[in-house]
Amino acid sequence: MDEFWPVPDVLAHLAGSWRVERSVRDLAGGDEGRFEGTTAFRPLEDGGGLLHLESGAFTWQGVTRPAERTLRFLPGSAPGTADVRFADGRPFHDLDLATGRHVADHPCAADLYRGEFTVRDRDHWRTVWRVAGPAKDLLLTTEYVREAP
Hints:
Layout: H1 10-14, E1 16-26, E2 32-43, E3 50-60, E4 63-75, E5 82-86, E6 91-95, E7 101-108, E8 111-121, E9 124-132, E10 137-146
Antiparallel strand pairs: 1-2, 1-10, 2-3, 3-4, 4-5, 5-6, 7-8, 8-9, 9-10
């Protein structure tokens, strides 16, 4: 994908429901897993951002289990950007899709998470997280497709 779709307002663009498919590859051990589910971006009760609710099934080493995560997408420091935080309020990364592409880093203990966010069009976007360090060597690729309202 060489061309990106600019997004002037991240929060407005993400609002709604998305179908999610994620592949997870352990680059050190060779194992592969898959997550399939949905992500809903709903307004926070205080109106200052979006609550990201992801739920579905994660299959790893032949075993499928329910999986979910919650993030908070808050207005960022510049108009149209977002400050992404974990459910407990700890910082995760910034997000600016004005060009349709963004790279963010998140240090986690001795490992580094580097995420690349790309938008293909109004209804399709992708994240690719490369996790590298002494504890992890992973590649997580997630495809998002907007669900009809």
